[in-house]
Structure formats: C-alpha cells, structure tokens
Design brief:
This protein has five helices and six strands; from the N terminus they run βαβββαβαβαα. Strands 1, 2, 3, 4, 5 and 6 form a six-stranded mixed beta sheet that branches. It is about 40% helix and about 25% strand. The protein has one domain (about 1-160): Flavodoxin domain (Rossmann fold, 3-Layer(aba) Sandwich). Helix 1 packs across helix 5. The protein binds flavin mononucleotide. Flavin mononucleotide binds next to helix 1, strand 3 and strand 5.
Length: about 160
C-alpha cells in the first residue's frame, strides 16, 4: 500500500506529527511519502491519503482547504485527516463548536474515514487577555501533544481498525 502523509504547517508542529504518523505506517510495511502538500501535484499514485493541518482562527489553513477541494474531493481515495489544535480540548466550548463545525464540513467534503484532533503546541505563552478569551488555564503547557494518542491513531490506520 502506498501512503501519502501530507501536511501544512506554520510553526513546525504539524510537520513533526506527520513524521510520527509516517514512521508508524512505514513500520507496518506500507510505502510512505511524508510531504508538504505544496509539493504534491496530484494524488493519483497513492492508495491512502493521511492529511493534516493546524487550526488557525478556528479553521484549517486556507491552502489545506484548497488542496482538499482541488485535489482530494472526488478522487475516490481512502482519506484520513488529522487536525492540530491548541484550543480544542482546553478552550471554551464556543471555540470547540466552531472547530467541530469546520471539521465536519471537511470530513464530508473528502468523505474522510476518520478525523483525529491532535492537541497542539504554541511557540510562546499566550498573554493573559488571550487566555481569558480562549479559556485556557495559565498552567497549560506550551506543548500539549499526546504522542501515545497520536501513535495509537496512526496504528489504527496501519491496521485498518480506525473507529
Ligand atoms: C496565528 C495562530 C493562530 C492560531 N489559532 C488557533 C485557533 O484558532 N484555534 C486553535 O485551536 N489553535 C490555534 N492556534 C494554535 C495552533 O493550532 C497550534 O499552535 C498548532 O500546534 C500549530 O501548528 P503548526 O506548528 O503546524 O503551525 C493558533 C496558533 C497561531 C500561531
């Protein structure tokens, strides 16, 4: 099976998550390419597309959405999405709802088999006013990624046991 692990990133977090997912798929015997989506001209060569974007402004990056619309929707490929969000878990419900709405639209657009929400990482601490608006606690670590959870999801893709 040939897999593309494609990502977009602003500050490197999603790229590191993509590398981890790619390694797990590789270890299961799949042929894997881990690439920034701007270097993917088409998806014809792949059996499985595992595609990831960070959330900025409660949405995926515009280039990620354009890639899904232009190159993935209607391709008939097996698709799984991973979305990296700092606020989804610890933030206010209103932000969680906004992110969920975005993800449901994307899931429908590309008929994704699964969508994994990965806890994100900030390059620097949020100012107090932003913490108040977003509802994040002061002692929340900058890097909230849960590598065991990421590996478990990637393993479920490798085994074909996604839920
Ligand atoms: C400019 C900016 C805007 C962000 N907006 C959101 C947001 O709306 N919701 C959220 O959950 N996280 C937000 N984040 C946090 C990112 O989702 C998180 O830092 C993620 O790990 C970044 O991934 P990247 O390093 O691949 O760009 C934002 C981060 C930045 C730098």
């Amino acid at each position: 099976m040939k897999c593309l692990v494609g990502y977009v990133t602003k500050t490197g977090t999603t790229e590191e998550v993509a590398a981890c997912i790619g390694q797990i798929l590789q270890a299961s015997g799949a042929e894997v390419e881990i690439k920034s989506i701007d270097s993917v001209s088409d998806v014809e060569a792949y059996d499985l597309l595992v595609l990831g974007s960070p959330i900025n402004g409660m949405r995926v990056l515009p280039e990620f959405k354009a890639f899904l619309e232009g190159k993935v929707a209607g391709s008939g490929k097996l698709v799984d999405l991973f979305i990296v969000s700092y606020l989804y878990g610890p933030g206010r419900k209103i932000w969680k709802r906004a992110i969920r709405k975005e993800l449901e639209q994307l899931k429908t657009l590309v008929k994704a088999d699964s969508v994994e929400i990965v806890a994100g990482r900030l390059p620097q601490a949020l100012p107090g006013a932003a913490r108040f608006i977003f509802g994040t606690p002061r002692d929340l670590p900058l890097d909230t990624r849960d590598w065991d959870k990421i590996e478990a999801w990637a393993g479920s893709l490798a085994r074909g046991t996604r839920t």
